[in-house]
Known about the structure:
Elements: H1 5-19, E1 25-28, H2 36-40, E2 58-62, E3 65-75, E4 78-86, H3 89-95
Antiparallel strand pairs: 1-2, 2-3, 3-4
Amino acid sequence: xxxxxxxxxxxxxxxxxxxxxxxxxxxxxxxxxxxxxxxxxxxxxxxxxxxxxxxxxxxxxxxxxxxxxxxxxxxxxxxxxxxxxxxxxxxxxxxxx
Length: 97
């Protein structure tokens, strides 16, 4: 099967459409499990203790798939994340299964 100019142009247009898709990005500091009793006891001012130290990397999840790790930074008064490690290509592909 020959790859014609028209086929390549159609492929490029399809890729352009995909590049505009918005995906949810979640930065996860930590996660814990709590009993229902503990959850029901939460009120304004309650503190939920997490299991990660302040200087530990956070996780960056894209479309519910772990993509990278990073460190929290502040940029012009807003939180940001500096990427320090990206999951391997193989790990990202396995997460799609």
